[in-house]
Write a structure and sequence with these properties.
7 helices; single chain; five-stranded parallel sheet; about 15% strand; about 140 residues; 5 strands
């Protein structure tokens, strides 16, 4: 299977990308920083690292061409205040979906990264309370 991964250099993205490669899939990592991606992901014959920005619809569409599935594992490092007021996904997701589906990708998977690794233990008490009480429908 050909998989386009957004967020391949994050905690969850790295785990997903490595597992997909171990399973024999062809992975295209669409990343802001290709040097960072090469450092974190290494090299693999089935790995293609494609530089690009999420607001570059043309480049994202080119990276999406021929892919079987797009997996978005985008995360956001932010304070509670920034997180609660963030419109990142609201702004970027429509553009991402238009570019990817316009390029013929039939399957799209969106994953959340909260709770991966030690994030629950290392999050501040206010963040844990916000996520477990106020935003429990999201998390």
């Amino acid at each position: 299977m050909k998989i386009l991964v957004l967020g391949a250099t994050g905690r969850t993205g790295r785990l997903f990308t490595q597992k997909a490669l171990e399973e024999g899939h062809a992975v295209t990592a669409y990343v802001r920083n290709p040097d960072k991606a090469r450092t974190l992901l290494g090299t693999h014959p089935n790995l293609t690292i494609t530089p690009g920005a999420l607001d570059d619809a043309e480049r994202l569409a080119v990276a999406s061409a021929g892919q079987d599935v797009m997996v978005s594992i985008l995360g956001q490092k932010a304070t509670v205040r920034e997180f609660l007021h963030s419109t990142f996904l609201q702004e970027r997701l429509p553009l991402i979906m238009q570019a990817v589906t316009g390029a013929g990708v039939k399957h799209c998977v969106l994953l959340s990264a909260y709770g991966v690794g030690d994030t629950v233990q290392t999050a501040s008490l206010p963040m844990r309370l916000v996520c477990k009480v106020i935003m429990r429908g999201i998390f």
